[in-house]
């Protein structure tokens, strides 16, 4: 019978090969402007390595005497000086190390942003699946109500049922049509948000799988990776090392800088007949800076030490939060898994009850309201099942994000 065939297809989804979620994550990684901006930040930090390891520019000065200065070998007309300052030994290497560690920390920020984006794509994808399933169930429910209406009308025409049965199913049909219109509007909003994560047009098509098949998740799933591959923790480790290197730089900068230079003086011939008359003079120079104002160097060293302590405390706080978030996500995963098993059992029992009620109504024309109620109960359990499946996927995605699982 038609009514029984509709009952049998309830719970099955649309057919068709769907694009994998991992493919959408890759599209987001390639197109998302926020992730691209974060990578540019990393590339910019690499340029600081070259800057920090470079010597200061040499200084060239030139002078011309408006009134020549008389020397023993002749009047001095002009002077050129070239000098170069050199930081204390190891200073440039220490600065380069600071810049390198900061660049590595920026890369970890990029990885964290990428992982967040992957999670956001998953968190936006599963509601699309849930919404599509709800829309499918509601359309199937509408078909079932149409069949029940035809049956109730036939029973009324044969004086085997009351007109109120036809009116009741008419009310359910109007409610169903209203829910379908709401779900279609919701579908557009969810699709728009998902496509924005991928930096695509709102109208871009999205392929949703016809089922969600999750792998078996063992106890302590990827927990050993929670503190190993986590980019936020690695970033803080690099910040600690970078601050230690900055402390070394502060100590190096408190030492003298050494300058080497050369003066070249242009001398005209002397009127006196003396040897070396008019010979230009060359004078090597050595200069040393005197870092006698120690307060700024001591403050820079103390700043680096305080930053190290701050990053250590941040790391401890983050580790605690990661452990707490992992436990909460694991609880959500277990809860939704239990609910999925419960709803599948309830759907199976409810379908059996619906078949019995339909047979009884076909024979006696009684308990039509109970028939409608049971059919509505199946619809609710189906929606709850798809909701639990979507929530399970989001919880699993959160665990993958916390443990920095790569594609």
From TrEMBL:
<keyword id="KW-0732">Signal</keyword>
<dbReference type="GO" id="GO:1990281">
    <property type="term" value="C:efflux pump complex"/>
</dbReference>
<dbReference type="Pfam" id="PF02321">
    <property type="entry name" value="OEP"/>
</dbReference>
<keyword id="KW-0812">Transmembrane</keyword>
<keyword id="KW-1134">Transmembrane beta strand</keyword>
<comment type="similarity">
    <text>Belongs to the outer membrane factor (OMF) (TC 1.B.17) family.</text>
</comment>
<keyword id="KW-0472">Membrane</keyword>
<dbReference type="InterPro" id="IPR051906">
    <property type="entry name" value="TolC-like"/>
</dbReference>
<protein>
    <submittedName>
        <fullName>TolC family protein</fullName>
    </submittedName>
</protein>
<keyword id="KW-0813">Transport</keyword>
<feature type="signal peptide">
    <location>
        <begin position="1"/>
        <end position="18"/>
    </location>
</feature>
<dbReference type="GO" id="GO:0009279">
    <property type="term" value="C:cell outer membrane"/>
</dbReference>
<dbReference type="GO" id="GO:0015562">
    <property type="term" value="F:efflux transmembrane transporter activity"/>
</dbReference>
<keyword id="KW-0998">Cell outer membrane</keyword>
<dbReference type="InterPro" id="IPR003423">
    <property type="entry name" value="OMP_efflux"/>
</dbReference>
<dbReference type="GO" id="GO:0015288">
    <property type="term" value="F:porin activity"/>
</dbReference>
């Amino acid at each position: 019978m038609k009514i029984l065939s509709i009952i049998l297809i309830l719970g099955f989804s649309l057919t068709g090969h769907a694009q994998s979620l991992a493919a959408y994550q890759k599209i987001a990684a390639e197109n998302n402007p926020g992730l691209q901006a974060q990578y540019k930040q990393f590339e910019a930090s690499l340029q600081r390595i070259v800057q920090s390891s470079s010597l200061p520019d040499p200084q060239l000065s030139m002078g011309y005497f408006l009134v020549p200065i008389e020397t023993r070998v002749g009047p001095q007309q002009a002077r050129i000086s070239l000098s170069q300052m050199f930081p204390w030994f190891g200073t440039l290497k220490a600065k380069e190390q600071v810049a390198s560690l900061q660049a590595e920390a920026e890369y970890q920020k990029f990885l964290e942003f990428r992982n967040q984006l992957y999670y956001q794509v998953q968190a936006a994808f599963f509601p699309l699946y849930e919404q599509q399933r709800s829309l499918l169930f509601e359309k199937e429910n509408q078909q079932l109500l149409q069949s029940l209406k035809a049956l109730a009308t036939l029973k009324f025409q044969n004086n085997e049922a009351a007109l109120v049965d036809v009116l009741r199913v008419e009310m359910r049909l109007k409610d169903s049509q209203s829910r379908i219109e709401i779900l279609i509007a919701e579908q557009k909003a969810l699709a728009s948000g998902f496509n924005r994560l991928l930096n695509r047009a709102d109208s871009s098509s999205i392929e949703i799988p016809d089922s969600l098949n999750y792998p078996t998740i063992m106890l302590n799933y990827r927990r050993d990776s929670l503190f190993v591959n986590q980019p936020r923790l690695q970033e803080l480790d690099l910040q600690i090392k970078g601050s230690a290197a900055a402390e070394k730089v502060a100590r190096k900068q408190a030492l003298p800088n050494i300058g080497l230079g050369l003066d070249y003086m242009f001398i005209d011939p002397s009127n006196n007949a003396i040897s070396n008359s008019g010979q230009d003079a060359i004078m090597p120079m050595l200069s040393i800076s005197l870092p006698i104002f120690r307060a700024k160097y001591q403050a820079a060293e103390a700043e680096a030490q305080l930053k190290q302590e701050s990053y250590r405390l941040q790391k401890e706080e983050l580790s605690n939060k990661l452990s707490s978030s992992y436990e909460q996500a694991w609880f959500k995963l277990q809860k939704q898994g239990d609910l999925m098993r419960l709803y599948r059992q309830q759907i199976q029992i409810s379908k059996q009850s619906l078949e019995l009620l339909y047979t009884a109504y076909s024979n006696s024309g009684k308990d039509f309201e109970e028939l409608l109620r049971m059919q509505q109960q199946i619809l609710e359990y189906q929606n709850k099942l798809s909701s639990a499946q979507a929530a399970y996927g989001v919880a699993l995605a959160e665990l993958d994000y916390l443990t920095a699982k790569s594609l």
